[in-house]
Amino acid sequence: MMSPPLSAASLLGQATINRIVDALVEQGWFADSKVLDPALCQQLYAEICRLAEHDGLSQAGIGRGTEHHLRKDIRGDAIHWLNRESQAQRTYLAGMAELQQSLNQALFLGLFEYEAHFAHYPPGAFYQRHLDSFRGRANRVVSTVGYLNPEWPADGGGEMVIYHPDASDQEMARVVPEAGTFTCFLSETVPHEVLPTRLPRTSIAGWFRRNASLGRVLDPAS
């Protein structure tokens, strides 16, 4: 018998959302293991594996619009934007919508929308140290990463390193990319990188955005 779909309200839980809010205020980032439901992670992991096996992923690049370039010397993952095509995606996105509402209520961030994609790093791939949003642009305000790989080995590599906002050479945390782990951080102030991975590494990267429209032109997703 199939288990009922996980409800959005139980994806993170209010206690975890409260910890995320407190961590963003106190240090600008949150990371913890065993946050996401194991069954949901398994469904999402199977989905991205199918995409990888059937050429359903696109090589990720850097920059936005006309400045978008493929640079494997900087970033080596392949992606697929979440589009609600599966129940697992809809459940994950509904949970992020709940988090968005809580962040707006608690921190008055004016978050307008959430965008997210699967990210698949083949062996040897990495993503150099970077910020998700440039200061003053404010299009991406809060970043999230949910990890999907089951039973990640100690020597698997692929950790996300979070650096101090005011001292970019000071490590604050190394996040092991194991299923259930969830991170959340301020997009334009927290530098981070993905270390080279020894095994295929899977996650969902997402961003809560403000509406940075100019005139009648809606600010596009990157």
Number of strands: 11
- Helical percent range? 10-25%
Q: How large is the radius of gyration?
A: 17 Å
Summarize model confidence as the mean pLDDT. Answer: 88
Largest sheet: 7 strands, antiparallel
Discrete helix count: 4
Strand content: 25-35%
The largest sheet has its strands arranged as 1-9-6-11-4-3-2
Please trace the helix and strand order, writing H or E for each element: HHEHEEHEEEEEEEE
Which structural category fits the helices and strands? alpha+beta
Shape category: globular
> Unreliable stretches, pLDDT < 50, 5 or more residues?
1-5, 213-222
End-to-end distance: 41 Å
Overall description:
This protein is an alpha+beta fold. The chain has helices at residues 9-12, 14-26, 38-53, 87-107; strands at 29-32, 58-59, 78-81, 113-121, 127-130, 140-147, 160-164, 167-175, 182-186, 192-194, 201-209. A hairpin with a 2-residue loop joins strand 7 (160-164) and strand 8. The protein is globular, with a radius of gyration of 17 Å.
SSE layout and pairing:
Blueprint lengths: L8 H4 L1 H13 L2 E4 L5 H16 L4 E2 L18 E4 L5 H21 L5 E9 L5 E4 L9 E8 L12 E5 L2 E9 L6 E5 L5 E3 L6 E9 L13
Antiparallel strand pairs: 1-9, 2-3, 3-4, 4-11, 5-10, 6-9, 6-11, 7-8, 7-10
At a glance:
The chain is α+β, with helices and mostly antiparallel strands and 222 residues long. It has helices at 9-12, 14-26, 38-53, 87-107; strands spanning 29-32, 58-59, 78-81, 113-121, 127-130, 140-147, 160-164, 167-175, 182-186, 192-194, 201-209. The strands form 2 sheets. The chain has a 7-stranded antiparallel sheet with strand order 1-9-6-11-4-3-2.
